[in-house]
Amino acid sequence: MITVVGTGTGATPAEDIVAGAELVVGGRRHLDAVRLPDGAETVVLGALAPALDTIEEYVAKDRPVVVLASGDPGFFGIVRALAERFGPELLDVRPGVSSVATAFARLGLTWDDAVVVSAHGRDPRTAVNVCRAHPKVAVLTGPGAGPAELGAALRDSRRALVVASALGDPQRERVERVTPAEAAARDWGTAVSVVLCLDPERALGAVRTVAGPAPGPAGWALDEADFAHRDSMITKFEVRALALARLGPRLGDLVWDVGAGSGSVAVECARLGAAAVAVEKAPDGVERIRANAAAHGVDVHVVHGTAPDALADLADDPDAVFVGGGGRELPAIVGACARRARRTVVVAMAALDRVPAAREALTSAGFSCDGVLLQSSRLAPLPGDVTRLAATNPVFLLWGTRTPLSHEGVAQ
Length: 412
Known about the structure:
412 residues; alpha/beta; Rossmann fold; 3 domains; five-stranded parallel β-sheet; elongated
């Protein structure tokens, strides 16, 4: 049997459990915090594979093993690796209180509506994009993905960061609320337990039935009337429906909406859980996008500038890009987007003579390319309680998907 004990704030003292162990495994600070039985072998956790091999030797001889971990070891913890190797039936898990629960408790906030993401030993871009998109996020940090790195990536956001360090240690525990810029400017050391990223205006949240991220929208490809727009200059819902299907926005993704106009595509991507950036050259368009995002209760980062030049100021490469404007600069814009997009680029064009150049820009960047001409007719009333079909302007939708080999050189 392997007994897995969560230590730290709120945990049951492990002394009695450890007393009967012949092998005790844990981080150095966990081992130093308990009285180890005489004659017991200890393994300081570093690389996981050697520790699992040693545990296997003891399990094979039916010798008792205790594994010490932080907080709740079943929450982004060692229970997964142990269960995969030895089977859950061999585990006796004694959870403590997770650092996430403790940090929110220190603030007097519920966390059933929080999104929890781990950046420990992982690419931090997912955590950053989740923080951009959601009002209440807990980030489990690690080397290269701590408060300073999160703060630097979130400088332009409206978020507040709460850095919780050494939770459960009466002498060393600190819970500090800082701006992203303040977080970026400090050396936080190695004692950080968790970082909370909060939208101050929405931190309390609403009463929930399902924990975790808010449920996705019941529908998408919203009617044009659901957005403020100028002179019908908006991506029509039929086009938007297929564009969203090809963009595939999801939790942890970053999507650019270039030549955003009303921002309808960016807003819909944000409603589906992605972090969204809208690039728009018209000042009134910038304000319109912000108003549409606020009306739909999502965060869209709006950049006032003209593509392709404005794209150079966007630090993070997107997973997907929608290009809805561009005029004569369209090939250069598509090319700039294709050089940075990790997964796909979708281009909407009313002028068919621009299709070949846009297609060439995608294929030259290593994308496989496909497209369709969308023509739709909507039901429209006529006098006398009859209905006709009213044709909308045809739009050519082109999409490029990055092939695996062409992904080399794109930031991971």
